[in-house]
Amino acid sequence: MEHKSVLSPAYELQACNHGTNDLELAIWQVPCPATPHISKPQRIARLRGRNMALLEGQILRRLRRVGISIAPGTGSTQTFAIDEEEALSLGLLCRALAPMRNAERMRQVARHIEGMNHSEAAYWLGMAMHRKNPRRVLCALRLLLTDPHAC
């Protein structure tokens, strides 16, 4: 019998369909023995509206690959446990895309974030969550991941 001695943080994905083309995804870090400093759920990121609609198909395909299928239906919130690697990547994706307006640059950022390994995503998400000016961190990330001459 194998014992897993390493505890890892616990995350969950909440999906709420508010109507046609109005899906909202939120990633939460929930209390668990690995994170005793977290006493109540902490929202990592959220994405809804035009930016979510633009990349909804890509995000839903990604979720299906890890066994999460969001059922259609309006108004109810569905909750799914999600592993750390996927939570960090999705959290970073949601935080980076939320304020963006240029569709082509959004696709570039999404493609690069999806290609990041666990360490890179954890680094950038940590910087975006725990720095004094997280907007500057996300702006720097978006600049690094996009080609200004391509648009």
Description of the molecule:
With 151 residues, this protein is α+β, with helices and mostly antiparallel strands. The chain has one domain (10-145). Helices cover 45% and strands 19% of the residues. A four-stranded antiparallel sheet has the order 3-2-1-4, with helices on one face. Helix 2 runs antiparallel to helix 3 (103-115). The N and C termini lie far apart (55 Å).
Question: Brief overview, please?
Answer:
The protein is α+β, with helices and mostly antiparallel strands and 151 residues long. The protein has one domain (10-145). It has five helices and four strands.
List the helices and strands and how they pair.
Blueprint (H helix, E strand, L loop, with lengths): L9 E8 L5 E8 L11 E6 L2 H16 L11 E6 L1 H14 L5 H13 L2 H13 L3 H12 L6
